[in-house]
Amino acid sequence: MKILILKTSSLGDIVHAFDALSYLREKCPFSQIDWMVEERCAELVEAHPLLDHVHVVATKKWLRHPLSTWKGRRALFASLPYYDIVFDLQGNCKSAWLLSQVRARLKIGYGWKSAPEWPNYLFTQRHYNPPKGFNIRDDYLYLIQSFFLDTKPYQALGVTLKISQQHQKLVEQIPSHAVLVCPFTAWTNKCLPEQQLLAYLKQEQGPYYIVWGNESEKAKAQKLASLLPSSQLLPKVSLPVLQRVMARCRKVIAMDSLALHLCGTTTTPSLSFFGPSSSSKYAPRGAQHQVLQGECPYGMKFEKRCTKLRTCQSGACIKAWKSK
Hints:
Elements: E1 2-6, H1 11-16, H2 18-27, E2 32-38, H3 42-46, E3 53-57, H4 59-64, H5 70-79, E4 83-88, H6 93-101, E5 104-110, E6 126-128, H7 136-147, H8 165-172, E7 179-182, H9 194-201, E8 208-210, H10 215-227, E9 231-233, H11 239-248, E10 251-255, H12 258-263, E11 270-274, H13 279-282, E12 289-294, E13 321-323
Parallel strand pairs: 1-2, 1-4, 2-3, 4-5, 5-6, 7-8, 7-10, 8-9, 10-11, 11-12
Antiparallel strand pairs: 12-13
């Protein structure tokens, strides 16, 4: 049997869908399981050991340059096998268009009530609506388990992403008793203030390795390291290598970010801080993950993310939390 998972972006959402892939591989151990992903996220998916093939798409480039990319698009879709099943875990208009280009006997997607963008519903033959209140990982699992009429709880054991031997040597240089600190996210109002983060870090026993992603974050990480004894910056590494570093460390301390979601694919304990997003929806599952959830002083309520996430600059909710 040939199966395709359609989950093109974003990086965090792709990591959330790894549990669904683990389940699918256990359910269909001898099937060919492929994944379709955007090129900017391909490195992460290509490192997953449970996949047979990864098909890389570039939808933004295709939209900007439809004529010059036409032959490449045509060649890509013509090279795809005829799939028995496609699971569309994306559920939007972009994945609907991709579905229209993929040949398959059966296309599975979200129901009318749960599809992120309703036109997607028109491009799938079977539909399932995950119940409200599920962790995001369980939303993706529900879609696949429902197809197999399986209602048993499922907990993935984690995954070890593939890296080169050279990178493995770098990972082995990290002490196994180290604490990995991931203090940054794309949204500043999801980041804990420096002094509050330091107060938590000083309760731990180092050494500390601080993760950064760009030059602005690097400067902030250097300042944090100067204030924290036994700390240094982790060299900039790929996401698969970062995941392997996390698996080696004693603990990961992170905001609601891609780094935290990567930690959730390992067995390493974590401490995470949530403010304008729901820890019930996005935090890693398991007793080894401690979560501190902020409370909005303005009375905002939300199931997934605060509607003011992109506009509220106060960051007040990340400063006042309760243990979950």
